[in-house]
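Re: the 324-residue chain
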Amino acid sequence: MAKTKINADSYLKTGSNELRILEYRVSGISFGINILKVSKIVSEIKQLIRVPETHPSIQGVFKDMNHLVPIIDLASVLGEYREKTKHDKVIVTEFFGLMTGFHVERIDWIHHFKWEDVIDAKHVFSGIDQKYVLGIVKPTEEHMILLLDYETMLLDICPEFKDKAKITYTGDIELAQKKILVAEDSPAVRAMLVNELSNLGCDIVEATDGLEGWEAFQKEEFDLVISDVEMPQMDGLALTMRIRQSERPDTPVIVYSSIGDLGMKARAKYLKADAHITKLNLNKLIVTAGKLMNGEKVDFDTADTDIDEHGVEISEVTETIMLD
């Protein structure tokens, strides 16, 4: 099994609103993924273990070190036909605290962009029924790369994640009438987050990207800002930096990201975010939000530790299928 390790930490300047996109192809279409979400690229999978009664897009699992990693046929998810080629690769990702492989036809290139270069797909596909394309980038005038909503994709394939994204904590937290700005470009994740917070009595203002969030922040005062990292126009790190340089720099900010690696947490801490919570850890998000809005300090280095419905901490472990 051949592997290529992606060193994602080597390029991103904190708060610079930069991203690098790994371009790959499926059925001849160019797609891209932020390299911060890429753990490694694998080819020559010698043993694929098929698992019965799983989602039809799951090809099986393969052994990587001492783990079994599920492989998703991306062409199947997107409703495209794919022929196996000698260039086939598996992009292993790590987000939501989960390792997942996406089977693609080939890897093309890594491109460097600014988030303001990302064209928001909702403006392009207005009125067209599509759910997985979030943005478009253009390395040249003739070439377009589609950026997918991998979070919604995984939620569709693994519905049990939606249960994880519900609040089960039964402790005493009072959030009623608190005004919260939620900046999140994934419609599925944003809807879940807004629904749970609204059920607690919060007054929610939604933003579909960082720039929209920044514009909302300048117009109104908020008790808390919850921001994704990857968003068109302005990412969550740049939004955090602007808030800290604004006239209301003490507004609590929680970075709520599917990228849970130490590098991302270090960037959020450097920019003085109050906490980094890995999606879909809603119990911890709510507890942390309650503390911050009540004027309490939280320990940034332990803020991402999960808790159960009784407030007991659960060790943060990347989810994979373990081998005995």
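Confidence is low (pLDDT under 50) at residues 1-12, 315-324.
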